[in-house]
Amino acid sequence: MSETLEKAAAELNSKTAGSDFSDSAKFVITDLGTIVLDGQGARVADEETDVTLTADQDTFEAMMSGDLNPTGAFMSGKLSIDGDMGVAMKLASVLS
Q: What is the CA radius of gyration of the chain?
């Protein structure tokens, strides 16, 4: 398991702590792996979720650091979304 993925999952847990995000989302980080986020928190896993967000490592890291808004990443084609767009929008507001 990648140390980068574990660090990213911990960062997602920190960002979503105290939020009311209870849906499920999967982050596919190209050439690295997947992270699942749901009511239980974020973890390195590959499970069925309400929405799947796919980006390269640089884009994912920019979104986590706040340098790139998830909506902007989607609109510029750096982030692809498959599944429930409403869940993706809820998640974007938690991460921003």
A: 12
Using alpha carbons only, what angle is made at residue 43 by residues 38 and 44, rounded to the nearest 5 degrees? 130
Q: Which of 88, 91, 90, 2 is nearest to 43 (CA)?
A: 2
pTM of the model: 0.91
Phi, psi of 47 (to 5 degrees): -130, 165
Q: Count the Cβ atoms, other than its own, within 10 Å of residue 28.
A: 18
Both tokens of residue 67? 């340098």
Q: What is the rounded distance in angstroms from the CA atom of residue 65 to the CA atom of residue 69?
A: 10
Q: CA-CA distance, 20 to 94, in Å (whole number)?
A: 9
What would the pLDDT profile of 8-18 be if each residue is shown by its tens digit?
Answer: 999 999 988 88
